[in-house]
Each structure stands twice: as structure tokens, then as C-alpha cells.
């Protein structure tokens, strides 16, 4: 079977996009296939897969025409992906599938998100970030207190003096499985100013990545607990793959802005 695919990234958090508009090409994506596509040595290589499908074809509740069916590199699903949805939205615009002259909705497992596209800068209303309290994360013998923040998906945010403190991050840091029964994304955060932080991320299902949009939002919100800023203020978040911006909205809502790019497209026959 041949099918079309694209490759894109948002601050080097990279994705294979699989157009499947009516759900007839890939159906319920096989996790083994997703993991094979994403493998950095044996596949195309990506942090995740974005299946581009009409909401009506998913059976999931959404008022949006288009649904981002997101998968991690290991084939698992997640509720939300902040970089992926920016890449997804840019793809919809480039293919003429949405009207970019105003905001439009994209469906996700975390509900519908409002998107605004201005050139290659894509802004997502991420909704309310929920701060649940403190937890712990551990790498080798080093234990950090962390904030439990939910930005559609689960995050543990630990503050460090130096991003190298977290080590190579080649293995899953330890976390409290009672707090996070479905796994967790972990951010290590260095404070650089009242509205400026730098982060490293170990993602559930994908390992260390060059960026994480939901993680940037979680980190900015956790930083804001000690550096409160007014509604409308923007926190700059430096990630290994670039910079994204998190703007505080009313009542705990946040908006994520950053670049997105589609870098390749083609037809593929998967023969492995
Ligand atoms: N890279 C993403 C987050 C992807 C999902 C995450 N790994 C999870 O399992 O929750 C982002 O940009 O937000």
C-alpha cells in the first residue's frame, strides 16, 4: 500500500504527518507501525506521528472539522501535543484545508483548541493549566521536588541551577506512579528572569526531545508560582531546539506561540 506523508517540526520537536482525511487509509493506527516509522535508525525518525483526519471519522467528540490524532514515538497516544498542533495547523493552512484569515479549531483528545496562524508563527489557546501540588522526580541518586502541572497531558516540573544537572537523560527519570499512573513528561527548568526560562524535557513515550510545547506551558506556569506576572504577560521559554512563548490568560489559561515548518513530503510504500 502506498500513502502520502510529510515531515515537519516545531522548534525541532519533529513529526511524521499522515494525511488520512476520511480515516480510510490508516484507520486505527497500529502502534508497532508508528514506532517503526519514528525509529531514528530503522525508520524515518520522529518524536511522534500526527494523523490528519476529519473529526467525523474518529468517533471522538469535537466540533472542529480536523482532528490531530497524535501518537508518541513508541506508538502510545497522548491527549495533547503543543508543538505537534502547530505543525498540524500549518499543514492545514498550506494545503488549503482551513481558512487562515481568522482563528480556527483543531480537535484533540484534550478537546478542541483554537489556533491562529500568522506566517510560520502559530499560536494555540491551550486552555487552563492545572497546578496540583508537589511531587518528586529522580535521576540516579539526585532527587528534585517538582510541581505537578497538567496542560492537557501530565507534567512534573523540576527547577535546577544548571540544565546539565539532569545528566544525559537517556533513561526514564523515576517518578511517583501513584500521582502519574499513565506516565509523565518531565521538565527540568532553569530560571533566567521574571519572564524567561530555559528547559530540557524527557517526554513520556518519546524520550528526551528538543522541545515540548505542553511542557513549555507547564514550566512557565510553575515558574509563575514564584514569579507572578500579570495576565497578558509572556514568558520566553528557551528549549534545546529554539524558543517558544507562553502568554498568561485569565483564570489560569495559557497560549503557546512558536514557529512551525513542513520540511518534506512524499509518497511512501512501507515495506519493512
Ligand atoms: N511534544 C509534545 C508532547 C507530546 C505528548 C507527550 N509525550 C505525552 O505523552 O504526553 C508537545 O509539544 O507538547
UniProtKB/TrEMBL annotation:
<protein>
    <recommendedName>
        <fullName>Diaminopimelate epimerase</fullName>
        <ecNumber>5.1.1.7</ecNumber>
    </recommendedName>
</protein>
<dbReference type="InterPro" id="IPR018510">
    <property type="entry name" value="DAP_epimerase_AS"/>
</dbReference>
<feature type="binding site">
    <location>
        <begin position="213"/>
        <end position="214"/>
    </location>
    <ligand>
        <name>substrate</name>
    </ligand>
</feature>
<feature type="active site">
    <location>
        <position position="81"/>
    </location>
</feature>
<keyword id="KW-0028">Amino-acid biosynthesis</keyword>
<feature type="binding site">
    <location>
        <position position="13"/>
    </location>
    <ligand>
        <name>substrate</name>
    </ligand>
</feature>
<dbReference type="GO" id="GO:0008837">
    <property type="term" value="F:diaminopimelate epimerase activity"/>
</dbReference>
<comment type="similarity">
    <text>Belongs to the diaminopimelate epimerase family.</text>
</comment>
<comment type="pathway">
    <text>Amino-acid biosynthesis; L-lysine biosynthesis via DAP pathway; DL-2,6-diaminopimelate from LL-2,6-diaminopimelate: step 1/1.</text>
</comment>
<dbReference type="GO" id="GO:0005829">
    <property type="term" value="C:cytosol"/>
</dbReference>
<feature type="site" description="Could be important to modulate the pK values of the two catalytic cysteine residues">
    <location>
        <position position="155"/>
    </location>
</feature>
<feature type="site" description="Could be important to modulate the pK values of the two catalytic cysteine residues">
    <location>
        <position position="203"/>
    </location>
</feature>
<comment type="subunit">
    <text>Homodimer.</text>
</comment>
<dbReference type="Pfam" id="PF01678">
    <property type="entry name" value="DAP_epimerase"/>
</dbReference>
<comment type="function">
    <text>Catalyzes the stereoinversion of LL-2,6-diaminopimelate (L,L-DAP) to meso-diaminopimelate (meso-DAP), a precursor of L-lysine and an essential component of the bacterial peptidoglycan.</text>
</comment>
<keyword id="KW-0963">Cytoplasm</keyword>
<keyword id="KW-0457">Lysine biosynthesis</keyword>
<feature type="binding site">
    <location>
        <begin position="82"/>
        <end position="83"/>
    </location>
    <ligand>
        <name>substrate</name>
    </ligand>
</feature>
<feature type="binding site">
    <location>
        <begin position="203"/>
        <end position="204"/>
    </location>
    <ligand>
        <name>substrate</name>
    </ligand>
</feature>
<dbReference type="GO" id="GO:0009089">
    <property type="term" value="P:lysine biosynthetic process via diaminopimelate"/>
</dbReference>
<keyword id="KW-0413">Isomerase</keyword>
<feature type="active site" description="Proton donor">
    <location>
        <position position="81"/>
    </location>
</feature>
<dbReference type="InterPro" id="IPR001653">
    <property type="entry name" value="DAP_epimerase_DapF"/>
</dbReference>
<feature type="binding site">
    <location>
        <position position="72"/>
    </location>
    <ligand>
        <name>substrate</name>
    </ligand>
</feature>
<feature type="active site" description="Proton acceptor">
    <location>
        <position position="212"/>
    </location>
</feature>
<feature type="binding site">
    <location>
        <position position="153"/>
    </location>
    <ligand>
        <name>substrate</name>
    </ligand>
</feature>
<feature type="binding site">
    <location>
        <position position="185"/>
    </location>
    <ligand>
        <name>substrate</name>
    </ligand>
</feature>
Amino acid at each position: 500500500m502506498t500513502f502520502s506523508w510529510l515531515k515537519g517540526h516545531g522548534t525541532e520537536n519533529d513529526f511524521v504527518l499522515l494525511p488520512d482525511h476520511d480515516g480510510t487509509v490508516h484507520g486505527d493506527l497500529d502502534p508497532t507501525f508508528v514506532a517503526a516509522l519514528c525509529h531514528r535508525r530503522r525508520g524515518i525518525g520522529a518524536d511522534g506521528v500526527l494523523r490528519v483526519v476529519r473529526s467525523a471519522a474518529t468517533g471522538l467528540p469535537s466540533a472542529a472539522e480536523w482532528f490531530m490524532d497524535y501518537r508518541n514515538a513508541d506508538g502510545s497516544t497522548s491527549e495533547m501535543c503543543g508543538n505537534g498542533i502547530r505543525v498540524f495547523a500549518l499543514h492545514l493552512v498550506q494545503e488549503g484545508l482551513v481558512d487562515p484569515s481568522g482563528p480556527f479549531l483543531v480537535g484533540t483528545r484534550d478537546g478542541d483548541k483554537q489556533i491562529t496562524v500568522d506566517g510560520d508563527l502559530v499560536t494555540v489557546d491551550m486552555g487552563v493549566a492545572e497546578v496540583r501540588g508537589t511531587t518528586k522526580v529522580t535521576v540516579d541518586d539526585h532527587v528534585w521536588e517538582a510541581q505537578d502541572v497538567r496542560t492537557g497531558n501530565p507534567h512534573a516540573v523540576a527547577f535546577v541551577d544548571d540544565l546539565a544537572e539532569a545528566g544525559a537523560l537517556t533513561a526514564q527519570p523515576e517518578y511517583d506512579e501513584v500521582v502519574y499512573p499513565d506516565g509523565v513528561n518531565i521538565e527540568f527548568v532553569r530560571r533566567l528572569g521574571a519572564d524567561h526560562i530555559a528547559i530540557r524535557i524527557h517526554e513520556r513515550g518519546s524520550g528526551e526531545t528538543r522541545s515540548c510545547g505542553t511542557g513549555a506551558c507547564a514550566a512557565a506556569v510553575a515558574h509563575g508560582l514564584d514569579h507572578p506576572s500579570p495576565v497578558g504577560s509572556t514568558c520566553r521559554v528557551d528549549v534545546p531546539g529554539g524558543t517558544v512563548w507562553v502568554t498568561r490568560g485569565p483564570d489560569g489559561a495559557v497560549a503557546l506561540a512558536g514557529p512551525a515548518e513542513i520540511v518534506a513530503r512524499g509518497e511512501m510504500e512501507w515495506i519493512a
